[in-house]
What we know:
Elements: H1 2-24, H2 48-70, H3 78-93, H4 106-133, H5 135-153, H6 160-183
Amino acid sequence: MSTFLAALPLLALGYLFASLFLLAARKAGYSHRLHTISEIGESGAPDQVFVAWGLFFPIGITFLLEAFLLRDTSPAISPLCACIAVGYLVAAVFPCDPGSPASGSNRQAVHNVGGAIEYIGGGFALLAAAANFGTPARLAGYVVLAVAGALTILPAGSSRGLAQRVGEIALFGSASWLIWLSANDR
């Protein structure tokens, strides 16, 4: 069971990236380097419904299940999974405005709060996990917090997409790695 739990974040990451690769061709002008993940399913996008309910929602539920299953056996990892879950579930229910601006509609404001919980909460969850798992978790936490800052200050048309993908790899990869370490007693 622990190997399965450790593999779930990597499977979710693979599903996310494979879906993004396939869906990007359907959205005119989409660039993985320039555009955020949420923009593939922004309000009015051709695949908005699929992205919300076929991509973001299942990933959110996967991490919510991980957080629930790990709450007693791996309390240092459960908050990380919960933060990722919140980010994806909020993105499913509250798709971003076109371009995913820092400010916009009320829906965009809620979407941004979900992203803040995922990245800021996830970064701090990794820093807290470093007490049990050491420097690599701390470094991953700093990477995720730096991505949170970059997503906040980088303007549209810059490398927000690239920054976000680095953050997703750090979050999902760290979750998988920490679950594996925890299950195998480091």
